[in-house]
Amino acid sequence: MLSPLALDTDWVPGPLTTDEFGTLFLLDLFEGRIFRYSDDGGWTRFDAGAQGGGRFASLRSLRTRGPDLFALDAARATLYRFGLDGRLRSTISLLREETEGLDAVDFLVDKTGELLVLDRAGRALFRYDRDGGFVAELTDGVDAANLFRSPVTMALGRAGNVVVLDGLSRRVFPYERQGDALPSWSYEVAPVKPADTNTNTSTNKDAQKSAATAEEPGSRPRGNRAAHMALLPDGEVVLASAEGDWLRVFAPGGRLIWRKDFAEPEPIGGMTADNRGRLFLSRPNAERVDRMQWDGAEHVPVLGR
């Protein structure tokens, strides 16, 4: 059984990712700091000096590749490249003539080190080289039926394929590495009940918790759409709501193979999976990270609580 991860301090766990060795990297939305967790070494916080002398209040997504940890600053359309020890190595601006008005909602780093950036407002997927030079718009030429409308996040498969979660249409859009569209598929859920969310914004910490799980204006009813996605080692797609009232696992083509509804849901601030089939879910209101072990569709994953 996997126990939840917690810190003996005030924090608001948000976006998170793992490296190839299963080390977890997580953004604390309260302090704007990045934490690293390993099974043998426990928690380590990247201090202010390691983070270039400042906190990061608008980071949206974290990814690792080889010796580097990347973090997306959505407000500035900028990527920060850190060493896995927390040292800031470089800053990469994603703003180019070809990406005017970029609304970077998520990014990936493929096995070659090239950067894939998801543009929500422009409904586009861009490729950059490892230093931030613009390469191509991968979705240029994709027909409307195979193009996402309001992307939320994306994930990278073992073969370099990209899977995009669309919040507005409640569909999952898979693409081959060079951008060729594969058949998309829809998901339907029936949440147990709307989740209670923290509406007390009397402190900055509570405000960060609320922002971590907030619904966008004009969205579908609470709990009816996925806000988080992760890929398991064999390509299964894990979807979860922001409210934390349901979790679903789908085969790569969209067939539902496992489901769980939570009668007492807790909001989810981020979700990722490592190459051993462990699923990590940050719980900003509860100030912890839950861990699940996926053993295949015939086994019920164990949720550490």
Q: What fraction strand?
A: 35-45%
> What share of residues is helical?
under 10%
Give the class from helix and strand content and strand pairing. mainly beta
| Unreliable runs | 191-202, 214-222, 298-305
Secondary-structure element order, N to C:
EEEEEEEEEEEEEEEEEHEEEEEEEE
Query: How many strands appear in the DSSP assignment?
Result: 25
Question: How does this model look, in words?
Answer:
By secondary structure, the chain is mainly beta. Helix content is 3%, strand content 40%. The chain contains 1 helix and 25 strands. It has one helix at 204-212; strands at 5-6, 13-18, 24-28, 33-38, 42-45, 59-65, 68-73, 78-83, 88-93, 104-109, 115-119, 124-128, 134-137, 151-156, 162-166, 171-175, 185-186, 228-231, 237-240, 246-250, 256-261, 270-273, 278-283, 288-293, 302-303. The strands form 6 sheets. Strands 1, 22, 23, 24 and 25 form a 5-stranded antiparallel beta sheet that branches. A hairpin with a 5-residue loop joins strand 10 (104-109) and strand 11. The radius of gyration is 18 Å and the shape is globular. It starts with a strand and ends with a strand. Residues 191-202, 214-222 and 298-305 have low confidence and may be disordered.
